[in-house]
Structure formats: structure tokens, C-alpha cells
Amino acid sequence: MEGRVAAPPLRPMTPVPLARPLRTLDITVSLALLLLLSPLLLALGAVVLLLDGRPVLFRQRRTGEGAGEFTLYKFRTMRRDCAGPALTPGHDPRVTPFGRRLRRSHLDELPQLCNVLRGDMTLVGPRPEPVETARRYPPECRWLFRHRPGLTGPCQLRSRGEAADLDGRPDPETYYLTVLVPRRDHLNADLLTRLTPAVVLGYLARTAWYVLSAAWDPPQSPPEGGRP
Predict the structure, then answer these.
(1) Closest Cα to residue 141, out of 156, 154, 152, 127?
(2) Do the Cβ atoms of 61 and 45 come closer than 8 Å?
(3) pLDDT tens across the length of the chain (228 residues)
(4) Which residue from 114, 104, 138 is spatially nearest to 214, judged by alpha carbons?
(5) 3-state class of 201 per DSSP?
């Protein structure tokens, strides 16, 4: 929220290195998808440019492995020069009409394949948190920042429902940090204790189905008034 005092930076943490087979899979899959989907990437970038102008890409500092920082790339889905919380509820007025379609289909996240190829992210892992949000994490949940964040994972596959859950909250970030983050903690812990190439491929298949399901999963109506 506006006027909130900035949280102190996170202390560096000893990173948990990504296993070599997982990194090999990251490079192979991200490079193949970037080549295969390059016409779609160009087309989406052209539509964003035509409808909403520059910049086409949204850049934001996120918290990476070992509590370091990196620049995450997405197609821009919000109006330019709009202030507000780092988190985006499902019916956030800052989102453009085309941006809403991109977000619902998760196609705005395709440029993150570049982050995976570069090694900032991995294919499957915890959600990459905005830096200011990560600094406000509950202390008992900060262990997560030792690990490399992922393009998809159990928490990302709940993103549509959680975005709708933030609608109407007077302080979405506080609700996210005090309710949703602790709720996610066991999901991330379970994932990271059994992360193998087979598990990654399984999540990629589930993610493809999740993306396709946006075509027939009707969007929820905005809530009337605020939530408690």
C-alpha cells in the first residue's frame, strides 16, 4: 500500500544448487520452446505494441536463488505509469483489456523462458517473488529463498484462484503474506524434496493443461464491495 515503510533488504542466504540434470533440462526445454514459440512471441509483442504502446515487455526485480535479485521479463499487461501494490488481484483496474486476456491465459509469462535459459529461474520451482514482497515474508517462510524460483509449480497452478481471492481485500499484500504464503509453504517444501526431471516433465504437462483450460473456465465476476 502507498505510504508503507520500506522493509529492510533480505540477508544473503546459502543457495541450494540446482542439480545438473535439472539444469540440463532447463536449457533444453527453454531453448526448444523459445524457438518453437517464436512466431507466437512476436505476434503477442506486436499486439501489445499496437494496442498499448511501449514498452512491450514488463521488467521487475524479483528475488532469486540465495536471496539475490534478478530482472524478470513478462509481456506488459498493465497501463503505463500506474502505481499500486506489487500483487495483482483478479480484477485489478490497472490491467489493460488485452492484458487481462494475456494474464488469464498466462501467455504474458512466456518471456520468462529467457530467464530460465539464463539461469535466473528454473522450469519448476517456487514462485519468483517481487523484491519488496519477499522482504516482508514471514521469517519462518524465508527458507524458500535459498532455492531457484520456477516458471511453474504447485503454487503457480493456483494463481487464477488466488488472484480472485485477492479481489476486494483492503490490503491484498497483507492478506497474501499472512494467509496465502503460509498456506503455500508445505506445497513448496513437498515439491523441493522430490524434484526430479520426471516431476518437472509432469508439472510441464499439468501447466499446459492449466493454460488451455482458461479457454473454457469462465472468469469470475468482480466482488461487490470490499471483503472483511
Answers:
(1) 127
(2) no
(3) 455 678 899 999 999 999 999 999 999 999 999 999 999 999 999 999 999 999 999 999 999 999 999 999 999 999 987 776 777 776 788 999 999 999 988 999 999 999 999 999 999 999 999 999 999 999 999 999 999 999 999 999 988 888 888 887 888 899 999 999 999 999 999 999 999 999 999 999 999 999 988 877 666 655 555 555
(4) 104
(5) helix
Neighbours of 168 (CB within 10 A): 17
DSSP 11-53: PP----PPPHHHHHHHHHHHHHHHHHTHHHHHHHHHHHHHHH-
Q: How many angstroms separate the CA atoms of 147 and 121, rounded?
A: 10
Could you tell me where the DSSP H helices lie in the chain? Answer: 20-36, 38-52, 97-105, 112-118, 131-135, 159-166, 172-175, 181-193, 197-213
Note the pTM of the prediction, 2 decimals. Answer: 0.91
Sign of dihedral through CA atoms 79, 84, 87, 89?
Answer: negative
C-alpha cell at 224: 461487490
* Amino acid occupying residue 96: T
